TrEMBL record:
Keyword annotations from UniProtKB, A to Z: Glycosidase, Hydrolase
Entry's EC annotation: 3.2.1.22
CDD domains hit by this protein: GH36
Coiled coil ranges: none
Reactions listed under catalytic activity: Hydrolysis of terminal, non-reducing alpha-D-galactose residues in alpha-D-galactosides, including galactose oligosaccharides, galactomannans and galactolipids
One Pfam family, short name: Glyco_hydro_36N
Taxon lineage: Bacteria, Pseudomonadati, Pseudomonadota, Gammaproteobacteria, Oceanospirillales
Any one Gene Ontology molecular-function term assigned to this protein's record: alpha-galactosidase activity
Enzyme's top EC category: hydrolase
Protein's recorded name: Alpha-galactosidase
Glycosyl hydrolase family 36 N-terminal domain sequence ranges: 22-252
Amino acid sequence: MNTIHLTNGLLSAVLHEDEAGTMAWLYFGPALGALDEGALAQSVQALAAAVPQAFLDDAIPCALIPTGSEGVFSRPALAVATATEWLPHLQVVGVEQTSALSCRIVQRATAPALEIVTELTLDATRPLLTQQHRLTNTGSEPLDVRVLENTLPVPTHLQEMLHFTGRWCQEFTPQRQALQVNTYSWENRKGRASHDHFPGLVLGTPAFSEERGDVLALHVAWSGNHQQHLVVDTFQPTRYQAGIGLQPREVVLAPGASHSGARLYAAYSNEGLNGIRAAFHGHVREHILRFPQPEKPRPVHLNTWEAVYFQHNTDDLKSLADAAQAIGVERFILDDGWFRGRRDDKAGLGDWTIDADMYPQGLLPLAQHVTGLGMEFGIWFEPEMVNPDSDLYRMHPEWVLQLPERVQPLGRYQMVLDLTRSEVQNYLFEHLDAVLSALPVRYVKWDMNRDLMHAGDAQGQPAYERQVRALYALLARVRAAHQWVEIESCASGGARIDFAILEHTHRFWTSDCNDPIERQMIQWGFGLFLPPEVMGAHIGPAHSHTTGRDTSLMYRALTAMFGHFGVEADVRLLSEQERQHIAELIALHKSRRADFHAGCSRVWDYPDPAVKVNGVIHSDQQRAHIVVAQQAMPARAVSAPVRISGLLAQQRYSVRPVRLPSVTNHLMKTLPSWFEGSTVLTGQQLATHGLAMPVIDPASAFMFELIAIEEQ
């Protein structure tokens, strides 16, 4: 019988093949140390479960892929069927462990006949595990695959969960609760990752926080329908299962055909949520993210949407570009409205040719004006969609995802093109390629503004899963043809955010909401899983068109400061004082973005929930940049000190305010004395007694930095 121990010195995963040939999880959690064969056998013995009364006579394993045939009565991780067979019994036929970090497990069943190859891999330097299955039909009949999910045991001391709901303009809304005996299920059927069911979950010890507690974070890398299940059982250890959400007969494998499930990422921390950030961010940077020019700083954006909306005019856009360049913008992105028939969102999608009425000389004069100012030129597309009021739809109404003789509901006045058709793929690639080849484009904002309904292919079969794979293929084709073009994943803001789409893109539009009060929480949830350099974060107008709130420029800028920074407003309308101020804030970001986008992102615990303290510590711990944001009225007349952990204990740091808070007569008469800029503290002092905080207005923020002092 095979026993597998994967470890990188930080994390251990132990699996064991039992006497029935079932590969089962024995342990997943903090590293067990180096175990020889004898010590590993003792672990197997120590973890052999008791058999309770009033149940089956043998212990039930926590199978790597529970099917129900081994005695698991809750949801199976594998559900398949032929015309006559429906309950497979998996048995191990091969195990290949090439190193301490990875293994390949092969299991087979005979009724129905199939093979599943599972790959488990530990990150070499981080407490992070990936898991993925590939299923092959080894029989002579078609095999209907209904469920293929990854399974992971959850350490029993993790008794509290954090998951995310949300909506348009309010993504990553956190929900926390204590675990009880139950099956918790989250199911997304919207065809994209969705605003309201981010494919991720966090489990931890009770009251886990940014800096404290054992935490396990899980993420399903899939950009469409998905399912997550947390099974808290009285007879078995708690387990997590997740994978692609499949419709009936959506994946029917012919003999010899294969299907790959979604990849699961699992990160473990005994340092609270900050350890999760470090694990996920480092893994994404090293193994997923592929910038065309890795050493190039992330350019400061100006996106035209909230500046002009659909009111396109070449002269106006040139003047907007002039104003953007004058304040330090480095990339100018032309948003929706540039193509034929596009005067609002009711027409034109699918007709990806430049509107000759709006642009009699085409887009080249504008693009050349932008590049002549020293900025890069970017452009918006929504390739997956079509308006019924378009030449494309009038010519090819059969090209949309739909069911015969069924009314296809519109979303944002548009329908979804069937990317599984080769003729649709070719049409889209040719039109995107024509624009990208004719213009000096270095950036594409790739949008997707509606959920999928009645997503049937040309034969009327469900196509949700194949639509996602076709999208990946189209993105890969565009990237191969235009290797210097960066692509942003946008889906009504944050409705398609996951590691899988990031393999084909370079940045996310985090939310259509630029209101910094909403953005503080949205970006907090995003930042648990993804590093700041892929987080689109812009300074919007003073008056937010999505919330109706007015906020200060400083608060908007400092909320966006650590992300992929930009502006989404008509900067021509700013006063001279405002233009100077925003130029200074852009210069501030540029001067420190190398640290922001390569350092260790952290959030610090603070007793007032209305205060958010977040920042970045440089990898050598010689510098740190910290923003304190006051979301609502302070809880106390005198705010508690903020304690900054994560620095070198004996290193002395100069404490320097970068952007000062306002001194207001109604909340605060004077600033704490350290704002004079002459305070020097050790890392241990900063982590223990910390720094006195000012008492500031709601919707305001300030920034300070810590710089290591070289000892003489």
